[in-house]
Request: fold
Amino acid sequence: MTTKLWDGRFAEKTDELVEKFTSSIDTDKNLYSYDIQGSIAHCKMLAKQSIITNDEANRIIKGLSEIKEEIKSGVFKYEDKLEDIHMHIEARLIEKIGETAKKLHTARSRNDQVALDVRMYLKEKTLSIINELIRLQKALIRFAKEHKSIIMPGYTHMQRAQPVLFAHHIMAYYEMFERDIQRFEDSLKRTDVMPLGAAALAGTTYPIDRDYIAKLLNFSQISSNSIDTVSDRDFIIEFLSCASICMIHLSRISEEFILWSGAEFNFIELPDAFTTGSSIMPQKKNPDICELTRGKTGSVFGALICMLTIMKGLPLAYNRDMQEDKKPLFDAVRAIGLCVKIYADMLPKIKTNKNAMKKAASVGFLNATDFADYLASKGMPFRDAHNCAGKAVAYALKNKKELHELTLKELQGFSLLIKKDIFEALELENMIERRVSSGSTSYKNVSYAIEKAEKKYL
Ligand code: ARG
Reply:
C-alpha cells in the first residue's frame, strides 16, 4: 500500500511532514462504512449504465465487502501516506483484486465522494439524536406527571416571582426540546440530498444515473448544481446550529438542577448513580453530569464557530480547508448525543422535595401580584392596585411578616376594598388555580399540556 493514487504528474516524493500534515485518516476513518456503502452504490450504477461490466462490478463489490470486514475487525492498516479513508479503501481494493479496482473511481471525485459520506453519516446521526430527544421528552412528561401537585417559586431575574407548578416548569423544557426536534427534522431535509455525480466540480462526461444512486442510498433528492454540491457545507453548519441551540437548553436545565440540588435550594436530589464524590470531602455528592453537560455546550458552540470560520470567504468550489470540517462535526455529534442520552436516563431517577419547594414559594411576597389583581377585581385600576400592593409589601417587610400574615384590619389600612376573601386570594393553591389563561400554570392547563404531549407519543 505505498504508491499514491495521484502521483502521475509528480517527479519528487512527498515530504514526510507534508504527508502527516495533509492526512485526515485519524478522523475520517470513522466514515469507512458510509464510504464503502457509497462506493457499492456507485459501482452498481456504473454497471447498470454499462460503464463497467457486471462481472467487474461484482468483483469490486466483493472486494469492498471484504475490506469492510477487515476494518471492522481491526486488521486493516492505516498510513498517513494514503491521506484519507477514500484513498485507503481504494488502494486496498487494488491490492486485493488488481486492475479492475481502478475502475471504481470512474465518473467520481473525492470531492463528491466525501460530501456523500458526510451526508450519509449526518443523516444517521441526526435521526438518532432526534430519537434520543424523543426519549428525553417522554421522560420529562412522566416526570411532570408524577410531580403534578408540587408548587414551587417561579423566578424572574433569579428572584422569587410568582408560584408555579413544578410540572409547568418541567414542561417548559418539553417545549424547548420540541422545537429542537423540529429544527433537526428540518435540517435533515437539506442533509438528505445526494451529491454524487458532481465529480470534481463540473460533473462528468459519463452517462451516469444519479437518481438510481439516490434510490439505492435512500436519499430523497439529488443536488442541482455540481459546483454548489462540492462547495456546500451548509448542512453541517445547520446541524451545528441546531445542536448549539439544543445544548443551550441542556445547559439551562443543567444549571437549574445544579442549583436545585444544592443545600441552598434543596428542591431535588440527584440519583447516586449519576453523581460523583470528592476525593477529599467525604460529604460531597457532586452534580457532574449537569456540570459536564454545561461544559460540553462550550465545545459544541466551538464546533459551530469553527465551521463558520472555515467556510467564510472560501471561493468556489472545493478547497482543502473543508477537510477540517470533520473533527468539529464528529466531536459535536458525540457530545450532544451523550448529553441527550444521559439526561433521558437520569431524569426518571431524580427525587423531588415537595416541602422545600412549597416553603420557598410561601416566603418572599410571591402573592403580591395576586394582591394587586384582587384589588383590580374590586374595581381599582391595576396601576393603582400595583402601587397599593407595593405599599403593603413595604409595610409587611418592616413588620417581618408576609402579606397573608397581616390582619384584615392592617390590610384594610391600604384599601377599604379589601374584605375577608383576600386571604383566599393570597393562598398558594388558589393562586395557581386562578392562572387560567391558556398556556399558564393552573392545574387544569398543566394537565392539558401533559395530556397533549402524551397523546403525541401514543
Ligand atoms: N480528505 C478530503 C476531505 O475530507 C477529501 C477530498 C479531497 N479532495 C482533494 N481533491 N484533495 O475533504
